[in-house]
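Problem 12. The chain below contains 261 residues. Write out its predicted structure in token notation.
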Amino acid sequence: MISFQMSKRKRFIITSILLSLGFIGIQFLDNQYRFLAIGGLGLATLLLFIWSLKEGLGLNLTLLTLVLPVFFTVGIGLFWFLLPVSIFARLPAVFFYGLGIYALCLTTNIYTVAAIRTIALLRAARGVGFVLTLVTFFLIYDAILSLRATIPVTVLATSLASYPLFLQGYWTIPLKTNFHKELFVISAISSIVIGQIAISLYFWPVTVVVGSLFLTVTVYVLLGLGQARLEARLFAQTIREYLIVGLLVFLGMFIATRWGG
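Solution.
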């Protein structure tokens, strides 16, 4: 029986192993049950992370630490359907998922602790969290664009999926436990911008992967600038650096596009 006095590290390892096994298990289900299984695995992720981080969670904004693990699980699960049916393609995905979950356990734990007191590892955790947030955005966008739904559905899906991810991404800067209006406003604005850019992809002959990458780079710019603003470090050089990255990706995407059909 699992002891309630179990150390956090042991809980993190158990969480990573159980979710990895669950991720492997859903691959043996029929296709008609896999989407439900992915949702179930997302719920399991939520419950296991609540258990793993129970000392640092409260009925406040620390609950935002649960957003990224759940979306990461769902994103990996949906992306799995797009991979070739080969052990050489899918085995690395399982390994990446397990490693990502463990990294998220460590990162979110640092966030919950840093919300209460100063901790030396916070900057490193923010860096890891930023990268995993971008990866999750890409996986979610790739799944949404793969549906090739109508413009309203795609815009709504990308905006709604982006909002909680932006919210947790921005929250990692102030790490305040109480309501912070600016976080919710800037997250809403960022999500609307993503939705508008998603519209442009319908008039641009790009592949799903390239379109997802372009949206993710846009997230990189928005999230980076937003975090710099919240950190009171939104200098001219910072703005210029992020915009240059966005411009270079846009130009690369423009050049690589086959306009002739």
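Discussion. The radius of gyration is 19 Å. Students who got a different answer should revisit the alignment rule from Section 12.3.
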